[in-house]
Design a protein that fits this description.
Strands 10-11-12-7-13-14 form a 6-stranded mixed beta sheet. The chain has a 4-stranded antiparallel beta sheet with strand order 6-5-8-9. A two-stranded antiparallel ribbon has the order 1-2. It has a domain at about 35-130 and about 195-265: 3-Layer(aba) Sandwich (Rossmann fold), CATH 3.40.50. Helix content is about 30%, strand content about 25%. Strand 13 and strand 14 form a beta hairpin. The radius of gyration is 18 Å and the shape is globular. It is an alpha/beta fold. It has helices spanning about 80-85, 105-115, 135-145, 150-160, 175-190, 205-220, 255-265, and strands at about 1-5, 5-10, 25, 40, 45-55, 55-65, 70-75, 95-100, 105, 115-120, 195-200, 225, 240-245, 245-250.
């Protein structure tokens, strides 16, 4: 039997379409600090994905379902980790294969999927585009067509929940790296996504800000998929994938995945 997340499928047959599955509600690990409520995941499935860039294979024949509340992705530089997560909201489209989120595929509904799948980049300065913090968080809400009063309410609520209300009127370029990362997260959270992808979010942070950001990830009500080289971040995750040479070399519990990665790296 091949195991696709919760669904056991006989060898040689395809998994059921996401549209035919009951959307799972899954409880995050009880060890995850601050995690008190269940996390409803939309159901993400990649089927026979291959990605080429300038004729080079970046990812090859990837088939995987991602349905746990907290999923980590690790692996060496250049293995294809960032490309893998960019597939999940249509920032990258596969050369072959299908990426499905809920009942939609990125090939046909990437814009719709991006409303459900938010993305926090490694360098937050690259996604903060407005001069003032409040305006930056409001920008995406305006694109949703929300009234000014509703945008203001959402911005204030999100800043308050993250404990950064004092930054609302700050100029974005004056923020520290940790503050910028929190503002980037606030801008994504304000859009009410169901999934948030983090691409090496702690790389530019000192220990204090790394621990704070880790706490925020653990406390999210959304599904979180985190690419990281910071292996300690993954201790309380539900599942970790190790990407090696454009393929998924290992898929399992955090401790087992880290052991596999350390052994692989030492060869």
């Amino acid at each position: 039997m091949i195991k696709y997340a919760q669904w056991n499928v006989p060898e040689g047959t395809d998994p059921p379409l996401l549209a035919d599955r009951k959307e799972p509600t899954m409880q995050a690990s009880p060890k995850a600090a601050g995690q008190t409520s269940s996390v409803t995941v939309p159901g993400i499935h990649l089927e026979k994905i291959t990605v080429l860039r300038a004729g080079k294979v970046i990812l090859e024949d990837i088939t995987v379902s991602l349905n746990e509340p907290r999923i980590g992705i690790i692996g060496p530089n250049g293995a294809g980790k960032s490309t893998l997560v960019r597939l999940l909201n249509g920032l990258v489209l596969p050369n072959s294969g299908t990426v499905q989120v809920g009942n939609f595929t990125t090939a046909r509904a990437a814009k719709r999927i991006r409303r459900d799948v938010g993305f926090v980049f490694q360098n937050p300065a690259n996604q903060i585009i407005m001069p003032l913090v409040r305006d930056d968080i409001s920008f995406g809400l305006k694109n949703l067509g929300l009234a000014a009063s509703e945008r203001l309410r959402k911005v204030d609520q999100t800043l308050e929940e993250l404990g950064i209300a004092h930054l609302a009127e700050r100029e974005s370029h004056t923020l520290s790296g940790g503050e910028q990362q929190m503002v980037a997260l606030a801008a994504v959270l304000a859009m009410d996504p169901r999934v948030i992808i983090f691409d090496e979010p702690t790389t530019m942070l000192d220990l204090r800000n790394r621990l704070r950001f880790q706490k925020e990830i653990n406390g999210l009500n959304q599904q979180a998929i985190v690419v990281t080289h910071d292996l300690e971040v993954l201790e309380d995750f539900d599942r970790v994938l190790v990407v090696t040479d454009g393929r998924i070399g290992f898929d399992g519990a955090p401790g087992d995945a880290v052991d596999f990665y350390r052994h692989w790296s030492a060869q």
